[in-house]
Specification:
This protein is of the alpha+beta class. The chain folds into 2 domains: about 5-140, 60s Ribosomal Protein L30, Chain: A, CATH 3.30.1330; about 155-320, Phosphoribosyl-aminoimidazole Synthetase, Chain A, domain 2 (Alpha-Beta Complex). It contains 10 helices and 13 strands. It has helices at about 5-15, 60-80, 100-115, 165-180, 190-195, 200-210, 225-235, 250-260, 265-270, 285-290, and strands at about 25, 35, 40-50, 80-90, 120-125, 130-140, 155-160, 215-220, 240, 275-280, 300-305, 310-315, 320. The strands form 3 sheets. Strands 8-10-7-11-9-12-13 form a 7-stranded mixed β-sheet.
Length: about 325
């Protein structure tokens, strides 16, 4: 087994990283990087810890590298921004195989390259637990960043993509790991992929920001019940969502039945879908839909912003408070 070193790891990253663009004045290899940024900069950072945020027993290193970056790109997407630069700090066990590290690096770089985001620096340390910390810097569009705090009574509530897929995929992977029941992974590939290799909605976020109709936005990382509640809390409003309108993949119900889980729990409370939840100005839905064009198919209206406090689910004429009932850190 080849023991990794910081010098070798940096050289490995430099070998695979794309050529430095003009706005990166000084990159990896000095005490600091130096980059040319605009007057406003979006900054997001996340830490992922082995056995807390991921499981290396079933998460391939290449896909885990992609996901570690995607988590932060999703935060930039939630502001309608453009990812520019990334910093990567790694805590790696000394017995971690070089082949595993190489595959992880290749995955991380592939996600960065997919969104034209440049790795400009970071740090590596040895430790007993595998930990990744990623920081991404981005630019808001000329129209400005979209905050959580702009929703108002009368606005409509929308989401992108399907809900609950990543949570179902994780549950299926855990079931297979425990060997408590045989799982046919080919039957739920979309759900597996949603957890293992999520796609941050960067381009969609930018189009929503350009529209001038979106008043508040958040990415769905901790489940709809928590992330939409964040918008309500920041905007000092309430919202009512319709259970019948929540979008789901065609295989989610069968997966829920197989897992003996309530499909509603997956839709509302399962995290890591990395879709977007956002609000659209009152009386502007028709103009908004026209602006979105063919990308209208990527989004769906699920509810309404109202006066008051809290997030409510409406089903069969009855309402119940579901505020902050998703994943808690």
């Amino acid at each position: 087994m080849t023991v990794w070193s910081e010098r070798k790891l940096i050289n490995r990253i430099l070998k695979s990283a794309p050529k430095r663009p003009a706005d990166v004045l000084l990159s990896i290899g000095d005490d600091c990087c130096e980059v040319a940024t605009g007057s406003c900069t979006l900054i997001s950072t996340d830490t992922l810890v082995d056995s807390v945020h991921f499981d290396t027993s079933f998460h391939p290193p290449y896909l885990l590298g992609r996901k570690a970056i995607a988590v932060n790109l999703s935060d930039i997407a939630a502001m309608g921004g453009v990812p520019r630069f990334a910093l990567l700090s790694l805590c790696l066990p000394t017995d971690l195989e070089q082949e595993w590290i190489d595959s992880w690096i290749d995955g991380a770089l592939s996600m960065l390259q997919e969104f034209n985001c440049i790795l400009v620096g970071g740090d590596t340390v040895k430790g007993s637990t595998l930990v990744f910390t990623v920081t991404v810097l981005g630019d808001p569009l000329e129209e400005g960043a979209i905050y959580r705090s702009g929703a108002a009574a009368g606005d409509s509530v929308w989401v992108s993509g399907c809900l609950g897929s990543a949570g179902a995929g994780l549950a299926l992977l855990n079931l297979e790991k425990d060997h408590s029941q045989k799982v046919d992974s080919s039957a739920w590939k979309t759900l597996y992929d949603a957890h293992l290799n999520p796609t941050p909605q960067v381009h969609l976020g930018q189009k929503l920001a350009r529209s001038s109709y979106v008043t508040a936005m958040q990415d769905i990382s901790d489940g709809l019940a928590t992330d939409l509640a964040h918008i309500c809390y920041a905007s000092k409003v309430s919202a009512i969502i319709q259970l019948s309108l929540l979008p789901k993949h065609g295989s989610l119900q069968t997966a829920a039945d197989f897992l003996k889980k309530e499909v509603n729990d997956l839709l509302l409370r399962a995290g890591e879908d990395y879709q977007l939840v956002f609000t659209v100005k009152k009386d502007e839905e028709r103009a908004f839909i026209h602006f979105m064009g063919h990308e209208e198919q990527l989004i769906k209206k699920i509810g309404l912003v109202t006066d008051g406090e809290g997030l409510f689910l409406e089903e069969g004429g009855k309402r119940k408070d579901i505020s902050f009932q998703g994943y808690e850190h």
